[in-house]
Every structure is written in C-alpha cells, then in structure tokens.
Design a protein that fits this description.
- The structure is a single chain.
- By secondary structure, the chain is of the alpha+beta class.
- The protein has one domain.
- The protein is built from 3 helices and 10 strands; from the N terminus they run αββββββββαββα.
- Strands 1, 2, 3, 4, 5, 6, 7, 8, 9 and 10 form a 10-stranded antiparallel sheet that branches.
- α1 crosses α3.
C-alpha cells in the first residue's frame, strides 16, 4: 500500500507560514533523518490517558550540520550508527485530528561522528541529551481505514557533545533550544493508541541559547518548511 499526503490545503497553509516566517540567524547544530532507502526505529503510543507518553525508539539519524556557526558553517557530517530515542510527558488530550502530550520526558541521540579536523567522536557517544520544554503534538494529516500519516512536533532544551560544540566554534557548555520533527505512517486512529509502520524523514533543529521566546514558533515553522522541501525534492528527483 502506498501513502502520500493528499491535503493540498494543509500543504498550502504550511507554505504560507514559510513565506511569513522571518529568517533565523542564530547559530544552530541540526540533525537529519533521511528515509532513503529506509529509516529504522519506531514511534508509538500505548493509549492510556494521563499516563502513556509518545515514544520514539532506535530511529536512525543520518547526518548533522551547522548553520550560521562561528566555525565550519554549512559543513555536513556523516553520523555513524547514530540513533534517536525520545519519550515525552504523558498524553493530555486529543481528538480525531491528533494527540497532545505534556512537557518533560527525555530525548537523546547517540553515535559517532567522523570529524574532518580534530579527534573523532567515538561510536556510542551521547551527541545530544535533553528534555521536552513545552509540548509534543502528533498531527494527523491523512487517514484511511487502515493507517494514517502523522507528524510529530515538539520543542526541546538540550546540550551537545563538547567535541561537537567545539567543532562548530560555539562556547564550551552551550545549551540549545530546538524542535523535533518527524513524519511517519502509523497504524491506529486518533486519539487512540498507535504504532508506526514506517518512519519517514525528520529533523532535530537546535539554536544555541539565548533564543527569544517569540522565536519558538519560527523554529517549528522553519522545520515544517524544510520537511516540505525534502518531500518536494524527492518527488521531482
């Protein structure tokens, strides 16, 4: 069975937000989940109100890059054996359009990075570690009797590997404010339990703190725009 997003209204709304969002110039370190050819891992929700979190396990992370960083700006680094794991706070509310989860929980990316200069980051290292600072929402974009296409979106606070921070020229001990975005095909229906059938593309976008509170929505919008761009480029390739 093939799945694709058919809601042109949703796509148009997101593209409209892209045009309105101001450019973000803060230094950031960002991680990329590329679904080509496949992405390992899963996203699931057990369905117990006020208890069950949204859980992501063993999701393959392919690359990372710096944006507007003091050093090595735009350099793309391959992530070796990198995996993303996360757990949000408990489920708060939902309807036929999606799920809302509480702040808290945890997020981590572990693996190795082959740095072009300086010592490599060895396999199994913690590259990112943090917690969700606001909310996580899984938005249902398309549904049919058997499955749906969803998008997870959440704000987070985290820290990075000191070697990674140093490579991109940021101050030692820098903290980051960012967003997690992953799309997936899930089996189930909102707001009940579900498990992913396929994990698609995704991003972890991270700006070095301080970031004005008004930039929170901007960061999420930029991430959504990037995912839309990835989809478009894959379809026309």
């Amino acid at each position: 069975m093939k799945y694709r997003i058919k809601s042109l209204a949703s796509a148009a709304s997101l593209l409209g937000l892209c045009l309105l969002a101001p450019a973000s110039r803060a230094a950031s370190i960002n991680f990329v989940i590329d679904p080509d050819p496949t992405t390992s891992g899963s996203i699931s929700f057990a369905g117990i109100p006020f208890v069950s979190p949204l859980v992501g396990s063993g999701i393959e992370v392919d690359a990372l890059f710096g944006f507007s960083t003091p050093a090595n700006d735009g350099t793309i680094l391959n992530c070796m054996g990198c995996l993303l794991d996360f757990e949000t706070g408990p489920f708060l509310a939902g309807d036929s359009n999606g799920w809302l989860f509480a702040a808290g929980g945890s997020i981590s990316i572990t693996g190795g990075v082959d740095l072009p200069s300086g010592p490599d980051i060895p396999a199994g290292s913690t590259l990112l570690s943090g917690t969700f600072s606001n909310f996580v929402v899984s938005l249902e974009l398309l549904s049919d009797p058997d499955a749906f296409i969803g998008l997870t979106a959440g704000e987070l606070l985290d820290s990075k590997s000191p070697l990674l921070v140093d490579f991109f020229g940021l101050p030692a001990g820098s903290a980051f404010h960012g967003a997690l975005l992953i799309d997936f095909v899930g089996l189930g229906s909102a707001p009940g339990p579900f498990v992913s059938l396929v994990v698609g593309e995704g991003l972890v976008l991270n700006e070095a703190i301080p970031v004005p509170e008004s930039n929170s929505l901007t960061l999420l919008v930029i991430g959504l725009c990037t995912l839309l761009a990835f989809r478009f480029m894959r379809r026309v390739a």
